[in-house]
Amino acid sequence: MTDLWLISVPLDKTSSNSVEKLKRTLSKTNLASCCKFSIPDLKVRLFIICPSDEPNRLYRVAQVALYSLRQNFHLTHFTQLDLMSYVTKFQWDKAKYPTALPLSSLADIINKLINCTVCLSSGNMQTRSLNDIVRKEDLVVSEYLTTLLVVVTRSLYEDGEAGVFSVTLFKRAVCEFKAKAQESKFTVREYGFDLEEKKQQEMKQLSVHKKEQYGIFVCWLKVHFSEVFIAWIHLKGLRVFVESVLRYGLPVNYQALLLQTDRKRSKKVREELDSLFMHLDPTATASKTDVSCDIPGLCQQEYFSYICFHINTNVLEIS
């Protein structure tokens, strides 16, 4: 398995010397390959308009879309793009993502592209059919009473993300209950056996239609998988730029590097990086295991003295 890390360090004298030493060490030991990851100068004066966590949110959406396409379809012939080469030889597409635009506009462009790419999946508890979960005796329907189904994170019946509760209440209290549920970020599902049966019939018709349209869909997938992948990598560059400005300050003065290593050698490469760039933040070693932070862009990942983002190679390994 291959590990891909995108790191960013400032261009001060000490860090520049450390980068040169890193390149020599990696070349001599064959621990990893190292190449420049080209990110253009983006609009800093309008930086505040684009929240620092927005690229992170879009990045996660794009990654989920790519992973869903990869999991649900055999993509061997669905893209003519050499994914690994595109990453290692990345060049910012200034025609598609003009660097003269503010960060918020670049994020909007990518957001629209991703939202237009609809991935087919079975869905989660908020969207999937509940026919295989809910029984008629679970529902109470009378002149005064009704039963609502509420999706709550990790509960009775779970799909890994959420569970579903049945709540029986007076009909006159339905609106108030829905409002309170929304405040607690619970999802109230509209459910009825007749409605679900109708949905099942529609799904069968859609399944037949899907088979009829498969050829057209393959053509669509060839285009959109590559498009989403390209947007995904541009978002990675956008994240590095945002974090570099937040961490290293202005004027913009940093360099981004892409490291490619075998997963078995990752620990040694990480130790080398920690040793070379510890001067950027001597406290980083002590906080590596503290992943519950409030700093945008650093949550749910390890914190290092340098900026480091992991590129999920599962997306690149198309089968």
TrEMBL record:
Keywords in alphabetical order: Hydrogen ion transport, Ion transport, Transport
Superkingdom as given in the UniProt entry: Eukaryota
UniProt entry tagged with the keyword Ion transport: yes
GO MF annotations in UniProt: proton-transporting ATPase activity, rotational mechanism
GO cellular component, one term: lysosomal membrane
Annotated function: Subunit of the V1 complex of vacuolar(H+)-ATPase (V-ATPase), a multisubunit enzyme composed of a peripheral complex (V1) that hydrolyzes ATP and a membrane integral complex (V0) that translocates protons. V-ATPase is responsible for acidifying and maintaining the pH of intracellular compartments and in some cell types, is targeted to the plasma membrane, where it is responsible for acidifying the extracellular environment. Subunit C is necessary for the assembly of the catalytic sector of the enzyme and is likely to have a specific function in its catalytic activity.
Subunit structure: V-ATPase is a heteromultimeric enzyme made up of two complexes: the ATP-hydrolytic V1 complex and the proton translocation V0 complex. The V1 complex consists of three catalytic AB heterodimers that form a heterohexamer, three peripheral stalks each consisting of EG heterodimers, one central rotor including subunits D and F, and the regulatory subunits C and H. The proton translocation complex V0 consists of the proton transport subunit a, a ring of proteolipid subunits c9c'', rotary subunit d, subunits e and f, and two accessory subunits.
Listed PANTHER family: V-TYPE PROTON ATPASE SUBUNIT C, V-TYPE PROTON ATPASE SUBUNIT C 2
The family this protein is said to belong to: Belongs to the V-ATPase C subunit family.
Protein name (database record): V-type proton ATPase subunit C
Protein source organism: Seriola lalandi dorsalis
